[in-house]
Amino acid sequence: MSDMQTLNGNCIIIGASHAGVNAAFALRKEGWQGAITVFDTDPTLPYHRPPLSKAYLTSDDGIEKNLLKAEQSYEKNQISLSLGIKITSIDRKKQLIHCDDGEQHSYNKLIIATGARPFIPPIKGIDSAHQLYPLRTAEDVNHIRQAMLSSSNKRVVIIGGGYIGLETAASLKKMGANVTVLERESRILARVTAPIMSDYFQQLHHEHGVEVFTAKDVTSIETKDDSNTVICADGSHYPADIIIVGVGIRVNTELALEAGLDIENGIKVDNAARTNDKDIYAIGDCSFHHNPHYNRLIRLESVQNAVDQAKVAAASICGKDVTYDTLPWFWSDQYDVKLQMVGLSSGYTKVVIRKETDDERKFSVWYFYHERLLSVDTINHAKAYVVGTKLIKSGAVIDQNKLADSRITLHPDNLI
Fold it and tell me: Is the pTM of this model over 0.85?
């Protein structure tokens, strides 16, 4: 097929979150002239997900205030949305997708942006619990909002002390709930950050009246009338009018696996986001890709990764020679605290903590593998985030003693 024929083909995108929607618009920007159709099981016009556990949860806004793109933008760019439809299978030989409404659609290029879904652990009694919700979609948040409206002083138990659980705890506390967080590990955020950061956020929530308990393995939920009791392995129990489950996700790889695509902690792709089928790409939370900065395969759950991979996939589909080469970054808002993270800290051998003398609310945690800077976590400290990003990208060897000395101005030139 010639380049012109390729640009005039039919591109189908499965998934209408950040990755899928950005891929559709990037395709138009890169010169794709053919049809673009985006499918998603969610019937709602595509929306931003990060605010769901924060601003959207605590506001009275409808989802229309939180849309990724206005409805007319899709019309203007001739992007078709097929929402509320589930793709049941992919026929790679015939280049067809089959839908649960009985329809089938042909493609020249296919982008899989199926993301992930909440993991609901096999806890005894969880299926019959009253007002138990994950927090992944606008519908989930609407259910939680409605549950909160029925009376004041709601007792909320959040199972899981990761970022989603903690952000939700802060939001629900703001809404007047009595909130308890139960984390199975010995500290919150144990898999993603250093102990000092875990201690900081535990103290932060304590100061705002949220009870955070660690080493709590929830084994069962007992429900009577409109009230639940969450029971842990150590015999402790916690009453709950509402239960939020935030213990992790499961990657949506079933379609790709059944279609014979390579799966390894996600849908395995090359540096252009292409799978082992040259006409099928995978982007966002569901993709397992190589990161040049760390020289290893990773799967990232972040908006930044979804957007960047979408652009790379679109450019590649339109015949451009591109390589995904982005340093990961993340953020979390809790109360009046902004956490910004850049890089990946896994495998670190040393942590350097920098506390600023001009503002006790600002500090940063720098993760090293011996002499090499891997990542930086910053609290209310955008400058440290920017400097850390530059230093990670440059690969410069940092004087760790200078870094820890807050009397030395935080600037890349002063730390080398």
Answer: yes
